[in-house]
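Final report, Chapter 2: Outcomes

The project's central promise was a pipeline that accepts a single protein chain and returns its three-dimensional structure in a standardized token representation, suitable for archiving and comparison. That pipeline is now operational. To close this chapter, we reproduce one record exactly as it appears in the project archive, with the input sequence first and the structure output second.
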Amino acid sequence: MKPFTIQIGAYLLGLLAFGGTANAATIFSSGYSNTFSVQPIAADWSTLSIAGGAGDSATSAQVGTNIAVLTAGAITNQLAVSNASPPLAVARAVFVTNGYVQTRPTGNRITVLMASFVNGTGSNVGALNINYDLTLVAGIAEELPGHRVYYSFSGGTNSWIAVNALSGADTNLSVNSMSARLDLGVWPTNA
């Protein structure tokens, strides 16, 4: 099976849910690309704030424990909109009108950003290439740099698989070009 590509604009990602509803963003045989020129609908890109404090998930393992108990059905909030660049720090992910999505958590344990996709290629997909740029600004001491990225076909608890190649970031770079190849086994068409 041929690998397909997701090319995503500037700054994003937390969870990828494959096998979503018919309303999810569609990956076609040409791939998927989003420049974030318009606010994405919640069925495609959604967010959730997990209550708590910044120090409550200070390690990758703690983040993984918090993500494991989530269901995709609990992550339903549409991204907030901001005209400021960069937007203020808030508990949920934000769509910025000049073409990017931002997570800049404050006052919570974890900010979740989820992209939901359906396979619209017309055939089963065995692998998926993901590429995007992750822009970093100065962080605070207890932050884990970058994002922790997971994917799931079911969106159920304990179904999230870590994508280590997309997790973390080099804090010496202001822009990290992130890429990974996900070997999916079989992702059925229209799932």
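Archive annotation: The first strand starts at residue 4 and ends at 8.
This record, like all others produced under the grant, will remain available to the consortium after the project formally closes.
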